Amino acid sequence: MDMSKNIDEALLNKIEHHVIGILEDLEYKYNLAQGLDKRTRFLVSHSLRVANIAKYIAEREDLDPTLVYIAALLHDLGKFVWKKNREYEGAREEEISARYAENILVGLNLLDNEIVKNIKEIIQKLYGEKELSDKRVAILHDADALDRVGYHGVYTFLSKWTIRGEDLETIILKRLPGELTYIQNIEKVMVTKTGKKLARLFKEKAIKFYEGLLRELNQLGFNYALKIEEYKNMKIVCVIKNKEIISSDKNIEKKLKCMWYSMRIKYIDNEIQEFGFCLPETK
C-alpha cells in the first residue's frame, strides 16, 4: 500500500511551511556566525526549486512525487549545521540532514512512522554510488544537480558570490571555471531519462548566457579566454586571462566530498591566478 496517498495538499503545505521556517532560521544563524547580520533565503529557495524539479521528474518517471518532494525540501537541512560544528568533521552532510529531517518530522507528528523512515532513507542514500539504483534517490539526485544550470542556476551562482563580497572579475576568474565545468558535463551527471532531457535544455541556456557575458566583457577590454581540456570522460573548462602564460600548475586530489581540481597560473606580467573546484561526479 502506498501510504503517501494519505498525504493531501493541506498536509503537504503544512509540512512545507514548517520546514521553510526552520531553513530560514538555520541560514540566519549561519550568517551571524560569519559576521553577516542579514537574513538570506538561498537554502530555502534552493530547496523549493529542487522539490519542484523532483516533482516534475517523478511525475514523468511514473513515480508518486510526494515522498521525493518532502525529501527534497529537507535534503540540505544539515548543511549549515555541518559547516558550523567541528564535531561533524569527516561526517557526511547527507547523514546529518537525514537525522535532522527525522527529528523534525517526528516532532511534527503529522506523518506515519513508515513514511518518515522512507523520507530519511532517501536523504541518507543521496549521492551514494550504489544507492542511485533507488529511483526515488536518483530523482532527488538529478533535481539537486539541475538546480545549478539554466537561467535560475545563473542567477543563484552570481548572486551567491556577490552577496559574499566578490566582484565580477573575481567571480569569473576564481569561481566560473568550476561552474562551467559542471554545466559542460551536466548530462553525464544525470541518472533519469527526464533528468537528461532537462540537462540538455538547461545546459544550452546557461552556456549561452556565460559565453555572451564573456564576449561583452571582452568588448570592454577585459580579454578573458576559455581553455578546455579533457580529463577521463569529462571536459574541464578554465577561464583565464588572454595574455602570455609563464607557467601553469594543476593538481587533482581526492577530498572528503569530491575529486578536487586546482590550477595556479603565472602570467608574463607576474599576475597570479588561482582557482579550485570539485569535479562533477559523472555516471
Q: What are the salient characteristics of this protein?
A:
283 residues; alpha+beta; Hypothetical protein af1432; 2 domains; two-stranded antiparallel ribbon; 11 helices
List strands and helices in order, with pairings.
Elements: H1 9-33, H2 42-60, H3 66-74, H4 79-84, H5 93-108, H6 113-125, H7 135-146, H8 150-163, H9 168-184, H10 186-189, H11 193-219, E1 224-231, E2 234-241, E3 245-254, E4 259-267, E5 272-278
Antiparallel strand pairs: 1-2, 3-4, 4-5
Helix pairs in contact: 1-3, 2-3, 2-7, 3-6, 3-7, 5-6, 7-11, 8-9, 8-11
Description:
The chain has a 3-stranded antiparallel beta sheet with strand order 3-4-5, covered by helices on one side. The chain folds into 2 domains: 145 residues, Hypothetical protein af1432, CATH 1.10.3210.10; 112 residues, no CATH class. The chain contains 11 helices and 5 strands. 57% of the residues lie in helices and 15% in strands. The protein is an alpha+beta fold. A hairpin with a 4-residue loop joins strand 3 and strand 4.
> SS-based structural class?
alpha+beta
- Strand content of the residues, in percent? 5-15%
Q: In the CATH hierarchy, what is the superfamily of the largest domain?
A: Hypothetical protein af1432
Detail the poorly predicted runs. none
Number of individual domains: 2
Mind describing the biggest β-sheet?
A: 3 strands, antiparallel
- Average residue-wise pLDDT: 90
